[in-house]
Amino acid sequence: xxxxxxxxxxxxxxxxxxxxxxxxxxxxxxxxxxxxxxxxxxxxxxxxxxxxxxxxxxxxxxxxxxxxxxxxxxxxxxxxxxxxxxxxxxxxxxxxxxxxxxxxxxxxxxxxxxxxxxxxxxxxxxxxxxxxxxxxxxxxxxxxxxxxxxxxxxxxxxxxxxxxxxxxxxxxxxxxxxxxxxxxxxxx
Length: 188
Known about the structure:
Mean pLDDT: 92
Shape: globular
């Protein structure tokens, strides 16, 4: 998909996902999560073309401006929405699916300093709550939910909820787990 279409899709995603969003102009001017995702998309394109230093410079300048650090080597799917965003960290080997929502203070981080896959893989339509730490080369399933402040170091199956420190898994999402702005048919 051409980068311009991705940027427009990211804008429309924020408008659709955030009940506080009033207009596209408001999002363009004042949504650091959208700004960080846009900068990532440019940096990732450079990273893929071998322009690693310019990509890292863009990611670090963006971190300074938004408080959100996304490594340009990470793989982020379409329609990612980072709400509020301050303190979000997404590591180099992280993979994030489509239609994922990430809240502020979240880390998709590593547990080792070795080469190779060391960050999580997050499935489609997952929701990661504020302050959650998802660590290591683990998998978060499609339609999974990670609770606020959870520390997740083991795989989370599809359509499950992970809560607590260390996170414990609830096998199935119930109506009580669905946020008001989400379509319950997708989750239960």
